[in-house]
Amino acid sequence: MNKEIQEAKDVKGFKPRSVVYATQIDEEFGEALAGYYKAVWKERENGLNMKQKHLLVFTIACSKLNVESALKILERLKKFEATSQEIKDAMMIAAWTGGIQNFTDFSPKILKEMERLGF
């Protein structure tokens, strides 16, 4: 495994599927995507921490009705010790940006998973 790909895995805790697929297409493409992935998720001084980044992508996933992704991100939020209220605030922001119908569509599954994960 090349250095960029290993570092992307180290940053996130797992090898992103997109990097795996890109590498199968072309090694350089996989390396480039791994570098992009690493740059996005790297913690920087005075920047967003991992919990904040995950709250942002969770909010976006909910607002776009990407419930499957939101449920996976919820597990990461548990790891980064997000509070129940932080997640609920993110859901309310998703309702604001994506519309109340989206909120109605994603909320039942998210709330059920929150309960399962112990939020």
TrEMBL record:
MF GO annotations: peroxiredoxin activity
InterPro entries: AhpD-like, CMD-like
Residue runs in coiled coils: none
Domain Carboxymuconolactone decarboxylase-like, residue spans: 28-104
SUPFAM superfamilies: AhpD-like
Protein name: Carboxymuconolactone decarboxylase family protein
Organism: Methanomethylovorans hollandica (strain DSM 15978 / NBRC 107637 / DMS1)
Lineage: Archaea, Methanobacteriati, Methanobacteriota, Stenosarchaea group, Methanomicrobia
